[in-house]
Design brief:
Length: about 300
């Protein structure tokens, strides 16, 4: 299950041209977006006003309820199962996401479908490391400084004093957030972290608030991808970044067969053994199989491919 990343930065005016809303707002020429994908997907049409829950065709309301129950059931074993299913590789994918994000001190992150906090924890560690490096550089540069240099440094420090980074984990599932809060307390993440119950399709935040929006292994579980993208566009500042980490198609036929065999024959078994829940992990496998590939998403949502 090797990482197959696709990265793009594009004008938000083109990316969201099909959203048909916010016509009064200034076009966001400087928003930039990044898309990461990992492994497997398939585009399947559903009847109007219905959608897919795994291989089932259900109403949009049913999917929202069913997905909520899945993650409520598996919340306590979610992180253990991620390690078991991916043999720990999901950690490398998330680390790669952070390196591409490259957040600086003062960045405000919205971690949507952030669940148990993996992305936000990495974000805080990344920014703390950068702050330590910046402090070391400042110490080196201030060896016997002149009074003019001290005055300039003091003024610059006040002008750029907003170095406090903040991560807001937003998830619709209260059980996942409870586990995330517990993990944060155990690992010492006390400051710079907030937890908010919210739906990715209707975020409880104002316009132009965030520097970075992430959604990792969550977008395939939403009911309306178009609404999620609209909300991401709305809450991002001009120049903000959208990063999505998700499974998609395996293009190599041999690897695709091996991946399907592993997914459908092993992952539900692991779910039963570790989490006592075969059905939830059967759904997760099916949801990956149903998820559109990159080209289908580009075409359906009006995203540029070049």
């Amino acid at each position: 299950m090797a990482l197959a990343g696709v990265l793009f930065f594009r004008s938000a005016e083109n990316i969201f041209a099909r959203c048909n809303r916010c016509a009064h707002r200034t076009p966001a020429f400087y928003r930039s977006f990044q898309l990461f994908t990992t492994v497997r997907g398939l585009m399947v049409e559903a009847p109007q006003n219905s959608t897919h829950f795994g291989f089932e065709s259900v109403s949009e309301e049913e999917k929202t309820e069913k997905v909520y129950k899945v993650f409520a059931n598996i919340a306590k074993k979610y992180d253990v199962m991620n390690d078991a299913m991916s043999l720990g590789i999901h950690r490398l994918w998330k680390d790669a996401l952070l390196h591409k994000m490259n957040p600086t001190p003062g960045t405000l992150l919205l971690d949507v479908a952030g669940g148990t906090g993996d992305i936000s924890f990495r974000f805080l560690e990344y920014v703390r490391f950068q702050l330590k490096q910046r402090t070391k550089q400042d110490v080196r540069s201030q060896q016997t400084p002149s009074w003019n240099a001290i005055a300039e440094s003091y003024a610059a420090g006040h002008q750029n004093s907003n170095t406090v980074s903040q991560a807001i984990v937003c998830d619709i599932n209260k059980a996942m957030l409870r586990v995330g809060k517990q993990r944060a307390a155990e690992q010492g993440y006390i400051t710079g972290l907030s937890w908010v119950v919210g739906n990715a399709e209707e975020l409880p935040f104002g316009d132009n608030m965030f520097d970075v929006y992430t959604i990792a292994f969550g977008i395939r579980n939403v009911t309306r991808i178009d609404m999620v993208l609209q909300e991401a566009h709305r809450v991002l500042k001009l120049g903000g970044h959208f990063l999505c980490l998700e499974f998609s198609q395996v293009t190599n036929p041999l690897l695709a067969r091996l991946y399907d065999a592993y997914s459908f024959q092993m992952i539900p078994v692991l779910g039963e053994v570790i989490a006592g829940d075969w059905k939830s992990y059967q759904y997760l496998v099916e949801s990956i199989r149903r998820f559109p590939d990159q080209v289908c998403i580009y075409q359906s949502e009006g995203l540029p491919r070049e």
